[in-house]
């Protein structure tokens, strides 16, 4: 005879906490996937011993060894780039631009591109570098 204090053994598994954890992980992966997934353009940026990670998100401006300019994934002429950056700067005054210039491009050409970007009203411009591995 059983008394009301005796309990039966739990024979089923409660999966509600497992489902909650899986859903949270799914949301995290969905939110971070666009940040991780970037189509790669072949640019060999110079190396620096003291490079920092970007603290903010920035628009990537790529200047490859063939002297082609890409804003994101779109190839532009300098005039088209100026027009687009001016429009972007008007809509977002705190816009950040990261310039990824190939190390084979002469310094003067990179400065011309930097001058073009700053001439559009963008104040936050960074030059991207690779960190040297000192092993």
Keywords:
135 residues, alpha/beta, Nucleotidyltransferase, domain 5, 5-stranded mixed beta sheet, two-stranded parallel sheet
Protein model, in words:
The protein has 3 helices and 7 strands, in the order αββββαβαββ. It has a 5-stranded mixed sheet with strand order 4-3-2-5-6. The longest helix has 21 residues, at 16-36. It has 135 residues and is an alpha/beta fold. The protein is 36% helix and 19% strand. Helix 2 packs across helix 3 (107-119). The chain has helices at residues 16-36, 78-91, 107-119, and strands spanning 47-48, 59-63, 69-71, 74-76, 96-101, 124-127, 130-131. The chain has a domain at 47-131: 2-Layer Sandwich (Nucleotidyltransferase, domain 5), CATH 3.30.420.270. Strand 2 (59-63) and strand 3 form a beta hairpin.
User: Which CATH class of the domain at 47-131?
Assistant: Alpha Beta
Strands side by side in the biggest sheet: 4-3-2-5-6
Mean pLDDT reading: 79
The major pleated sheet works out as: 5 strands, mixed
Q: Radius of gyration, Cα only, in angstroms?
A: 25 Å
State the share of residues found in helices, binned by percent: 25-40%
Q: What is the terminal-to-terminal distance?
A: 74 Å
**What is the helix tally?**
3
In short:
This protein has 135 residues and is an alpha/beta fold.
List the helices and strands and how they pair.
Blueprint: H1 16-36, E1 47-48, E2 59-63, E3 69-71, E4 74-76, H2 78-91, E5 96-101, H3 107-119, E6 124-127, E7 130-131
Parallel strand pairs: 1-7, 2-5, 5-6
Antiparallel strand pairs: 2-3, 3-4
Helix pairs in contact: 2-3
